[in-house]
Amino acid sequence: MSMIGNYRRLTPLELNSLRENPRSVMAFLYSADRSRPPENRHLDIEKSWHVIHFLLNGDAWDGDSTLVNVVLGGSDLSDEGFGYGTVRFLLPDEVREVSEALSDVPAFELLQRFDAEALNDAEIYPHGWSDDSKEGEYIRGHYVALQEFFDQAAKAGDAMLLYLN
Fold first, then answer.
1. What domains does the chain contain, in order, with CATH numbers?
2. What does the pLDDT look like over 104-149, one tens digit per residue?
3. How would you class 79 by CB atoms within 10 Å of its CB: exposed for 0-12, middle for 13-18, buried for 19 or more?
4. Whether the Cβ atoms of residue 94 and residue 100 lie closer than 8 Å to each other
């Protein structure tokens, strides 16, 4: 089974409601028919989550206090597991800070950090990285989508949920 990186924009009011009742997160993320929220409120970066984190932070699991929030940061909504780990959240100010930090790292600069051997040595998911140009395009596409998603959320004053499923 694959680990997929997901982001869900939400209003501060919606976040406060989830913080008061974290067990309602599944109902919030998935309707009764398990359909997804509107496209502009949800982003799926597939298996690129770990490589994006690594290229931004230079570490498999840690990093700069702002850039770590792009993928692996945030505060736990609860200690209850969801998919792979917990659902985490970023407050609107943190979303804005992440958006600004992402805008400082253009996609071409991020891809200059790509080193298949270093990724494999660091055991970056999904493993088996190569110098094939398709790898770079895969990462670039998801990174640009992530930049745009955070930018839109920051401009709207939204909070953000982060989770792996």
1. 5-27+39-164 (3.40.1760.10)
2. 999 999 999 999 999 999 999 999 999 888 999 999 999 999 999 9
3. exposed
4. no
